[in-house]
Design goal:
677 residues, alpha/beta, 36% helix
Amino acid sequence: MSTEDATALDAVAEGESVKAKTVERGNKVLVTPLYGVKGEQPMCYHVSIDGCNILLDCGWNDQFDVDLLAPLAAIAPTIDAVLISHPDTAHLGALPYAFGKLGMNCKVYATLPVHKMGQMYMYDHFLTRQDQCDFQETFSLDDVDTAFAAFVPVKFMQLSMLRGKGEGITVTAYAAGHTLGGAVWKIGKDAEDVVYAVDYNVRKERHLNGTAFDAIHRPALLITDACNVGRAVPNKATRDAQLTEAILSSVRKNGNVLIPIDPAGRVLELILLLEEKWAQRQLGSYQIILLTNVAYNTIDFAKSHLEWMGEGVTTAFERKRENPFDTKFLTLCHSMEELKALPAGPKVVLASFGSLEAGPARHLFAEWADNASNLVILTGQPEPGSLSEEVLQMSTKASAKKVKMELAHRVPLEGDELAEFEKSRKTSTSAKTESVKDEQMLEVEDEVADIKPVEQEAEPMDVLFGVTTVGETQDADLRRRACLTEGFTPISTPYGPMFADEVWEPTMTDYGEEISMEKFHEASLSVIGAISIEPVREVPMIEQDQAESVQEVEDEIQEVPTKLVSENREVNIRATILSVDFEGRADGKSVRTLIAQTSPRRIVLVHGSITDTKALKTQLAASLPGIDIDTPSAGETVECTSASATYKIRLSDALVQKAKLRDMAGDKGGWVYGIVG
């Protein structure tokens, strides 16, 4: 033992070494899947770290089943932070409902693309559903805005500190692939990390790099999914060739191609693929159309956020100033009317939504499915219970294929219905107008009642000027005082005030001097000459306020009167149904390799079929012996507290001064030998 070490231990004996010592068993970590385990349901998992409640994703399905959110409703007001990994409905679809109806009020952490693209998702959902049903009871646009106003955009590898109950906890996002801005989250406290990695992709794509867990090593807990581990991902070139040939086979027979997609996310990769193939084969005679309510916003955002994309995209832009989303063959449409207004001919339409539960994709499927020349391409695993799942199952049958579906849309009111609506609207307008006028008059009366008379006595500033306000009008006194601003020092002379007379008497408003429109009228006549302009009547402020308020009421009501019309239709499926794996998620081999590379001390498997979950657990148990692997059910809590003790020691200044410190990369480091525990 060195002399310095002996001195340090002597200091311990003398009682000057340690101010305080805390011995803990480890951070208390509880994991409770709310839903999204042992199946292909949306994802939502509750993690408690030493009392701080963190929600990992907050997804919903395309049916917007409120009963699914019952576990979330029980804890929503107690959530301290939410981490969102991807911008689709399965990862953030329940946020507007949680903020608007369940009382959630906390920060939501996500990358900038996930924030913006997710907002487009929910806008498209609302606009589409509101056109097909009364969707306001589920959530409104105000709920969407409230939820996304709580977002805290972060960059990849940016360390963010939680506040409040999360003091001492950090969250960091790493690129996950799969979608633009998709993230793998690392939650750190003290020397332990909790990693949340779902729906990631290791393969490099046209606009995204694959994920890499290089910065994540030996976390205390890894929460990951077992989805897709049972399927072999096809070769990229083979998949693209199959997709292209199927599309060309249909359009060359004068057929149409429907590709149900989500409004923002994997659609970007599909657009780049079609643009590339159309340019290579010179297929400009066949139209490519993106049909969503937010089509323009999606492409515009992609154009302006190339820094979040892969090396191929950024390199091409830096060297050649080529933006891959400056598309040459893509046409943007925002409604069925715009689609029908396009020139006749074969079309390849990418329409929302991928589940076929709503949106233009549902209507186009009902219209095109009975034509044998048409083609419907499903690019991902269908959502359980959705129309796309039913269609995919029907496509494998050799017998007649029929599917029953309900179509709803809004139509303008006509005839007696329109007359009745106009009558009720006039009655409502009149009542609101009278209410507004009454409120305005009450406000004016209150303002008049609040006015207090000005005392008629000399003030020190007036005496300084040599004048008083006694005997003068209150208005003159107020105007004189308005001229005496803070910082203005009057000159001490026997002469009178600077503004001795009261000739200037303008009419003042809340915004300054009231403008006389007649003076402008006279000036314009002198310039223009013979051109006559009708004089503008000056309207008192009270009347203006009333008019503006009434106009606002009228604007609120001036909407096209419509009603919902629905029909049940039986559709014969004669079109070709093709399923192509375009999800962009890691296969089973890649998942096992990444997990082994990470070397976690404990694993919790979520989101995957029962078969895939069991298979992955068996494979990991063989490759990582001695590691606890949990597969909890929905609502089941798993305690993942570390078994190793954590020691927090604060050294006294005297001991630190006696320790031998060395310079290390700009900092100073040293060591002290002792016994703890």
